Structures are given as C-alpha cells and as structure tokens.
Model the fold of this input.
Amino acid sequence: MPAEVPEGLGELPSEGREGLGELRKVARVVLLDPQDRILLLYGHEPEDPSDNWWFTPGGGVEGEETRKEAALRELAEETGITEVELGPVLWRRTCSFPFAGRRWDQDEWYYLARTTQTATKALGLTELERRSVAGARWWTCQELLQAHETVYPTRLAELLRRLLDEGPPAGPEILDTEIV
Done:
C-alpha cells in the first residue's frame, strides 16, 4: 500500500488556481463494498432540488483533526458507516463551486476505503446537509459509466475503472482543477 502524503507536503500546483480564495481542507472517501460498488451521496441546492448531483462522502477538516480523521468522521456522520478500512490517498484536486449562496474553494483529498457494511443512515448531518443531501446509492462502475446525472469529481467513472483495473496509484494523482 503506498504511503500517504504527510499533511502540508505535496501542495497542489498553482496552475489553474487563479481566482480561487483561501482553500478549505477537505477529505473525501471513495468507499467500495465487496462487489466493488462505490457509495455516492445525492445532493442538491437547498432552495432548488432540480439543481442536483452525485458526490463522494466527505467534508471539511475541523480543528486539529487530520484529513484521515476528517474522512472517517464525515463518513460516519453522512452514512452511518463506521466499519471501514481506510487506505491511501488516491486523488487530489482543487475545486470551486457555488452552493447555498456562497462560493466554496476547496483542496480535496480522496481516500480509498473498503467496507462490508452497506446499509446507510445519515446520523450526523449539519442543518445545511439536512436541507441538501437527499440520499445515498451504491453504484457499479458500469452504472457510473452510463449515468447521465452530474457526478463529482468529473471523470469519476473513468477514475474508478482505472482504480479497479490497476489498483491504487503509487502516490496521489493530481486531478484537473474544477471551477463551476
């Protein structure tokens, strides 16, 4: 298993980050079940459910916690899943998007994780998440490849296919900056 990039090292390149503000540290989880399905959450703009998308569980680092700790906490809060084997950081990306009346500029780390626990129940959602997260679903790679819905990060189906075919990369792959 590749070593994790230590906190604070391996900063993302500055190309493509022009116009981004202070980056919020985010830990996301690429959670796979024994059938290699990935868990995605279904979200939407709080005031406009027709503006919707699928995304990986995760969220912002709080206080002095590490990104690994944030990944596990967020996964438990958003899905109720706690029986997890957390693996390496697969991907990193910067992104910027409007949500709930403000712009979010983020430095996201995507951790590989495996679980046999497939039942989900969101137990610790924030007030904003309760207004904007509408469910969870396990997806096969084939279903993702054929999906017409919006999924973040962009190219997730392709990234998952490569992960399943080749295994985790030797170190975190830097994904293209996404500005929505």
Summary: Confidence is low (pLDDT under 50) at residues 1-17. The two ends are 33 Å apart (CA to CA). The first helix runs from residue 67 to 79.
